[in-house]
Write a structure and sequence with these properties.
The chain is mainly α. Helices cover 71% and strands 0% of the residues. α8 packs antiparallel against α9. The protein is globular, with a radius of gyration of 27 Å.
Length: 546
C-alpha cells in the first residue's frame, strides 16, 4: 500500500511538473526568439543609418525587441495578455524610449478607452434592467417557426446587440438563450413521442410501438443536436461580425481608432464608420447564414420551433418597466449623438461648441451614461451602481488598447515604423497594390486566429503605417483593411471569447469551428477588401490604388 501510494504521488507530481513545463515552454520560446532577432538586427545593423546616433539606434532596438517579446508571450498565453500589455511602460523607458515629448503611461487611458468605458456602462445598464432578454424573446416570438428563419433571427439579434455591447457580453446572453431553446425543443419532442397504450391486452402492440417511438425520438434528438450546433455557431460568429458595423463594436475597431488617431492626428467619425461598416457586417452575416445552411448537412430534419412557448415566456415578463424604457431611450440617444456629432454629409452639432474637436464620441457616451448613476432602479438604488459593476470592468481590454497606443507611439517616435516601411517597400514595389493589400490582410487574419485580435492590431497597424509612409500613400489605404481583417477570428476556440463561450455549451467542437470558420474567414477577407474599395475609400476620399 505504501509503495502504491508513493507511486501515485510521484505520478501526480510528474504530471504537474510536465504541465508546468509545457506551459512555460512558450515563454522560453518567446524569449529565445527575441534574443535571436536582437542578435540578427545588431549583426546586420538593419534599422540604423551610418549617420544615426547610438541613442536612436538603441531606441529602435528596444521597441523592436519589446514588441517581438510581447507578440511571443501573447501567442504563448502566459502570463495573462493584460500583464504583457504593461511591458512597454516598464521596459521601454529603461532604454530611453518615452521621455520628454511623450510619456507612454499616458496612453493607457486615452479617449478611446473612455469610449470603451461608456460602451460598457451602457451594456451593464441593459443587462441590469433585463432589456436584452425582453428584446431577444420578443423578436424570436415574432419569427415564423421555420428553423432557417429562427437561425437567421438569432444571428440578427446577436449581431445587433454586439454592435453596441461587447461581443463577450452578447455571446454570454445569446448562447444560454440558445440552450434554453434547445431544452424547450427537447420537451416538445419527448411529449410528442410518448407511447400510448389503452389496455394490457395490447401488450405486444404497445411494445412494438414503444420501440418504434424510441427510435424516432433518438432520430429527432440527433437532428435537434445538429440543428443547435449550427445555431450556437451562428451566434458565436454573429457576435464577432456585428461588432464590425460600429466604431465601438469590437476591441480591434477601438485599437485601430486609437492607433490611427495617435499616428496621424485624425479620426473616423461614428457616422462615417457605420456607412461602410454596416454593409460589411450585413454581407458577412448573410454569408455566414448561407454557409451554416449549406455546409455540414444543413439544419437537418427539424421541422418547426415552439414559437408559442417563446410567446408564453415573453408574456411572463409582464409590461415593459420604466427602467427598461429609460435605458432604451438613453441607448437611442447615444447612437443618435454619435451619428450626428460629425455626420458624413455635413456639419454636426459639435460645431455648436467652442472647440468642436474636443467634443468627441467619448464625450457623447459618458454624458449619456452619467445620469444612469442617479436614475432610480428596480431595487431602490440607481440603475447603475459602481459597487456592482466595478468587478465586471474588463481591465485587461483597457490595458490591451493602451498597449497598442503605447506601441504605436514608440514605433513612430523612434522612427522604427519608417525603417520597417522602407524594408517592406521593396517587396511592395514588386507587387501590385491590390495584391500587397490582400497579403497584409491575410497575415492579419491568420495571426488573429491564434492570438488576441486586439494584440494583432497593436502589432501590425504601426508597421502598416510606416509602410504606407514609405510608399507615399494615404496610411488608411493599408491600415483600414488590415484593422478590419483583424476582426475575422472564426477558426479556433482561443481566437475570440464568443468562440470559447460557444464551445463551452457542448454543442460544437474545434473541428466544427475549423470547418465553418475557414471558409467564413476567406469570404470575410474578400468582402472586407471589396467594401473598402467600393465604399470606405471613396467615402473618406482616398485613392484606392487599384
Amino acid at each position: 500500500c505504501l509503495s502504491f501510494s508513493t507511486m501515485t504521488a510521484l505520478s501526480a507530481l510528474w504530471s504537474s511538473a510536465k504541465g508546468a513545463l509545457w506551459s512555460w515552454l512558450g515563454v522560453l520560446s518567446a524569449i529565445a526568439v527575441t534574443i535571436i532577432i536582437y542578435a540578427l538586427v545588431r549583426t546586420f545593423d538593419t534599422f540604423c543609418s551610418p549617420d544615426e546616433s547610438d541613442a536612436n539606434c538603441r531606441a529602435k532596438h528596444a521597441v523592436l525587441n519589446c514588441t517581438v517579446l510581447m507578440a511571443g508571450l501573447w501567442v504563448a498565453g502566459k502570463p495573462h495578455s493584460a500583464v504583457v500589455a504593461l511591458f512597454p511602460v516598464i521596459f521601454l523607458p529603461m532604454m530611453g524610449v518615452g521621455g520628454h515629448h511623450y510619456r507612454l503611461e499616458d496612453q493607457y487611458f486615452n479617449k478611446v478607452n473612455f469610449i470603451l468605458l461608456g460602451s460598457f456602462l451602457l451594456a451593464f445598464a441593459i443587462e441590469e434592467v433585463g432589456l436584452h432578454h425582453r428584446l431577444a424573446l420578443k423578436l424570436l416570438s415574432m419569427v415564423p417557426g421555420d428553423p432557417k428563419m429562427v437561425l437567421l433571427a438569432m444571428m440578427l439579434i446577436s449581431a445587433a446587440l454586439s454592435a453596441f455591447m461587447s461581443n463577450t457580453a452578447t455571446a454570454s446572453l445569446m448562447c444560454p438563450l440558445a440552450s434554453s431553446l434547445y431544452e424547450e425543443m427537447k420537451e416538445v419532442t419527448s411529449e410528442r413521442q410518448e407511447p400510448r397504450s389503452d389496455s394490457d391486452s395490447q401488450g405486444s402492440v404497445s411494445t412494438d410501438s414503444e420501440t418504434s417511438s424510441n427510435k424516432t425520438e433518438r432520430t429527432e434528438m440527433a437532428a435537434l443536436d445538429h440543428m443547435f450546433k449550427k445555431m450556437v455557431l451562428g451566434v458565436a460568429y454573429s457576435c464577432t461580425i456585428g461588432g464590425v458595423s460600429t466604431k465601438t463594436g469590437t476591441g480591434t475597431n477601438l485599437a485601430f481608432t486609437s492607433i490611427y488617431g495617435n499616428l496621424t492626428g485624425n479620426t473616423i467619425g461614428f457616422g462615417y464608420w457605420i456607412l461602410f461598416g454596416l454593409p460589411i457586417s450585413a454581407t458577412m452575416l448573410f454569408i455566414a447564414w448561407l454557409l451554416l445552411l449549406t455546409l455540414g448537412g444543413g439544419l437537418g430534419s427539424v421541422q418547426r420551433f415552439p414559437t408559442q412557448a417563446l410567446r408564453q415566456r415573453y408574456e411572463k415578463l409582464g409590461a415593459t418597466t420604466r427602467q427598461e424604457l429609460t435605458v432604451a431611450a438613453i441607448c437611442l440617444l447615444t447612437v443618435l449623438g454619435w451619428f450626428f456629432r460629425a455626420p458624413a454629409w455635413g456639419y454636426g452639432y459639435s460645431e455648436l461648441f467652442p472647440d468642436p474637436d474636443a467634443f468627441t464620441d467619448a464625450t457623447v457616451v459618458l454624458a449619456a451614461t452619467l445620469p444612469l448613476f442617479f436614475i432610480p432602479g428596480k431595487e431602490g438604488g440607481a440603475i447603475l451602481q459602481w459597487s456592482k459593476i466595478q468587478g465586471k470592468m474588463p481591465m485587461g481590454l483597457f490595458l490591451l488598447i493602451g498597449a497598442g497606443s503605447a506601441i504605436s507611439h514608440a514605433f513612430d517616435e523612434s522612427g522604427l515604423s519608417l525603417k520597417i516601411g522602407d524594408q517592406m517597400k521593396s517587396a511592395a514595389d514588386n507587387l501590385p497594390m491590390v495584391l500587397f493589400q490582400l497579403a497584409c490582410m491575410l497575415m492579419a487574419a491568420l495571426m488573429s486566429q491564434a492570438t488576441s485580435d486586439v494584440a494583432v492590431a497593436n502589432i501590425l497597424l504601426p508597421i502598416t503605417y510606416g509602410v504606407a509612409l514609405s510608399m507615399e500613400v494615404d496610411p488608411l489605404l493599408l491600415m483600414l483593411p488590415v484593422g478590419l481583417a483583424c476582426s475575422l477570428p472564426f477558426m479556433l476556440v482561443v481566437s475570440t471569447p464568443p468562440n470559447a463561450i460557444a464551445f463551452q455549451t457542448g454543442f460544437i467542437t474545434q473541428r466544427d469551428l475549423l470547418c465553418f470558420g475557414a471558409p467564413l474567414t476567406l469570404c470575410g477577407l474578400f468582402v472586407t477588401f471589396a467594401f473598402c474599395f467600393l465604399i470606405a475609400f471613396k467615402l473618406l476620399d482616398i485613392d484606392g490604388g487599384a
